[in-house]
Amino acid sequence: MSVSAVTMTPQTEAPAALEVARLALARDLRLAFRKREQLIQPLAFFVIVATLFPLSTTPELAQLRQIAPGVLWVAALLSSLLALEFLFRDDAHDGTLEQYALSGRSLTWLLFAKTAAHWVLTGVPLALTAPLAGAALGAPAYSLPGIVVVIATGTLALSLLGSIGAALTVNVKRSGVLLSLLTLPLAVPILIFGARATELAIRNESYAAPLELLAAIVVLCLTLAPLAAAAAVRIGLE
Amino acid sequence: MTWTWFHRLGSPPHVYRLAARLTPWFAWPAGLLIVAGLYGGLVLAPPDYQQGEGFRIIYVHPPCAWMSLMVYTTMAVASAVGLIWRMKVAHAVAASCAPIGASFTAATLLTGMLWGRPMWGTYWEWDPLLTFELLLLFVYLGYMGLRASFDDTQRADRASALLAVVGVVNVPIIHFSVYWWNSLHQAPSVMKLGEPTIALPMLIPLLMMFLGFTLYFVAILLVRLRGEVLRRERAASWIREVVMS
Q1: B73 vs B217: CA distance, rounded Å
Q2: DSSP of B178-215
Q3: For an engineered disulfide with A49, which of A75, A81, B76, B96 has Cβ 3.0 to 4.6 Å away?
Q4: Are the CB atoms for A146 and B117 separated by under 8 Å?
């Protein structure tokens, strides 16, 4: 994994970037499974927020079903925001991020791998927990697979979009509120399309259109967000 | 040779003096246009047959809304210039833009709400334009919050510039999604401002207000820019000459 190996054989740069990204992904996953509380806390937060709504409005399932898409999405949004703060935090503190930037490998690919790991660790568990919260809020059984797909797609977009804000605020102390202020307005389209798709799924109608728009946002974020996040990390290291 | 004017814009003392010299050239026409436009719009123009006197908000509200987006565009272009050519003055322009843009956005919201009370019967309606302006205000606040969170001016400049550029990609998507959301959840019963046919005595003051607001923005920007340059260059020797003279 020496830097000189890359500079001496430039024709192998592209596969090397992917290989390094795969290693970074594997490292992040391994680290996360050793610190399980970081995995479980956002999930517990998600379930608690979803629980607050029946307690603060009404326990009647018929009425809860009406607000279920909004509740699920607000809870998912807040939970992923909470987890975003830790996306780059530890690696920035122990200098790993700096080494990534200095390694001569593509920082864009490395950050993309970190963001992908973040989604696997927070978005996917969230999507798998969502049917539980959804069913508790009166979502019918036929809508649950749709909810999993929609939340999984939406959290991927959120992780990618949020990686920019997380990279910008990585050196800011107590950045939680600022990160939310930066990310939430930009995340509004994800919220709108995601909640709409969930609503259609609960009504047993076709939710393809909003899901496709959500997927379009994912594609846009896939292409641009890692570039912007890499630029932001470089600014932070200057 | 022809690009020397552009390169000279990289020099803070030059920009400071240029801004001082240009300010009256924008401030006076802005003042005259706004006074004339207000007189033409509030006194001379006839009341609207549908909205009565209430339509006169058109002379303040749409120009404010136009400025809220135009200032963001200016800020993003200045940020991109600052990022690409590492031009300090461009970052100072972007930093000066943000509070002006946030103020125009707040003014748009306020005038929209005042107009909504007699027209819709409520101060707040989840109208796509108003909702979008509210989100735009949060985007401005986020930008200013990020800028304020750094002690180092250079780092603040570059980080917030990147955010402004990201916002330029995202703001149209927010605009589109808010419209899409609104068309699903609300019957299109709200009255629309700015119908395609508008009488000439109403139109001329409106155009004067648009131009007046734009010039006013440039004048305020130049004043703020001078303050920003002074703050950034406070350790430089040319400041003493400026202050002493």
Answers
A1: 13
A2: HHHHHHHHS-S-SPPSS-S---HHHHHHHHHHHHHHHH
A3: A75
A4: no
B177: contact with A, CB 8 A cutoff: yes
Q: Which two tokens stand for residue B203?
A: 């139109």
Determine contact: B124 vs chain A, CB below 8 A: no
Contacts A171 to B, Cβ<8 Å? 150, 155
List the structure tokens of A94.
């122990």
The yes/no answer on whether domain B24-44+52-187+197-232 falls in CATH 1.20.120 is yes
Segments making up each domain of chain B, as ranges: 24-44+52-187+197-232
Contact B177 A188 (CB under 8 A): yes
- Is pLDDT above 90 for B201? no
Q: Which of B107, B162, B111, B165 is nearest to B137 (CA)?
A: B107
Cβ pair A169:B149 closer than 8 A: yes
Q: Mention every residue, 6+ apart, whose C-beta is less than 8 A from residue A142.
A: A204
pLDDT tens figures, A73-117: 999 999 998 888 888 888 888 888 888 888 888 889 999 999 999
- Angstrom distances, CA of residue A41 to CA of A79, A122, A125: 9, 10, 11
Enumerate the β-bridge partners of residue B48: B52
For residue A168, give how far its alpha carbon lies from the nearest alpha carbon of chain B (Å).
Answer: 6
- Rounded to two decimals, the pTM is 0.88
| Domain range list for chain A | 11-237
The first and second tokens of residue B117, run together, are: 């009370």
Looking up tokens 């800011």 gives: A172
Which chain A residues contact residue B142 at CB under 8 A?
Answer: 178, 181-182, 185
Chain centroid, CA B69 distance in Å? 6
